[in-house]
Amino acid sequence: MNNFLPTTTEEIKELGWDRPDIIIVSGGDAYLDSPYNGAALIGRLLQSHGYKTAIIAQPDMETDDIARLGEPKLFWGGVSSGCVDSMVANYTASKKQEGMMISPPPAVRIINVPTGLSSHIRTSSVKTSKTLRLSL
Question: Is 74 a member of any domain?
């Protein structure tokens, strides 16, 4: 098993892959290979079963960043909002909107991150003929 799940095309090439079998998208958090990170757990589980699994963490919703790894061979493995809830990231305890308190990426500015990212995947320039919609 690799030290980390690949997050860039360079890391994919270093592993000798032409492209991943499955790509997991984590919208709210940076990729941390930790048992507290659901996207990392699912990615490791898939990897342990022989699937070439990659992660796109915090894609920029204003650009075509979601296409940075291309199309997976099998399917998009899931879209996660991450460990930090968007309400926690965007609002104070008194529900006052305060800029970006913990400086999350543009994906967090969407209140329903999994739905927003799924829609962004479908409308991006990357081919999405094999999309499995899961919410982690």
Answer: yes
